[in-house]
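Dear colleagues,

As part of the handover before I leave the project, I'm documenting each prediction I ran so the next person doesn't have to rerun anything. This entry is a single chain, and its sequence is reproduced below.
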Amino acid sequence: MKIATAAYPLDWLDSWAQYEDKLAAWVADAAGQGADLLVFPEYGAMELSTLDGPGVAADLQGSITAVSDRMDDVAALHQKLSAEYNVYILGASAPVKAGFDLPVNRAEFYSPCGARDHQDKQIMTMFERDPWQIGAGGPLKLFDTALGKIGVLICYDSEFPLLGRALTEADIILVPSCTEALAGYWRVRIGAMSRALEGQCVTAHASVVGTAPWSTSVEVNLGMGGVFGPPDTGFPATGVIAEGTLGQPGWTLAEVDLKTIADVRAAGVVRNRSHWPEQEQRIKTSRILLKP
């Protein structure tokens, strides 16, 4: 299969039709390059707040509500494009009011057959806790698709090994992110590469890029697309299958073979995935005081 990960800029939108045209162009571009699976980034949906005017777009809680209110229309558009181009799409995540105590950070996953499900972020960053007031949603899921078993770790979630381990059956883990600084980008990238090493799987990292001066929440964004695997048999020695250019909008594409994933799990130089339980017998520690 071919995976396309986005470095996606947030634009000012004057009309819903403008958003339809933008998204259709992005999907057509990736599909035209042979992509089977498209990954949009975390909080890429925040540009939808501009449809309610500058006052709403600049107001944090107002923009969250405005974006959440449009997600049914967003889903319908993604389902249409997924079917039209015969591609799987992880849509850009959005703050969604979904019946929990707080809005959740949710990424919708679309199948070309019309099926739709979602993954909610599990662990909130400091800015999501305050001032965004975003909370954890539903549990981690594993999507069984014609492209293999796919999991999603949204941004900060990729930095937690036990969340990655919960998706140990995944062939591919998608990592949509939104980071404003180089350090933030690298935290997520290192997390994505670490999960690929531990799970002996492929991870696909998408980013928001560029500035959005109309926003007080996602006004500066830095990152790029990337696809990673374990640095082992059948994969590049660096673990980097493909990477984009920092801060440059566009798709990063990579060919991925499920057989290569199965082979490295069965006969890799190391067996991180199957040897994981051996940690449990080794982590009991004794306290030894060395006195002068």
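Residues 182-199 form the longest helix (18 residues). The mean pLDDT is 96.

All the best with the project,
I.
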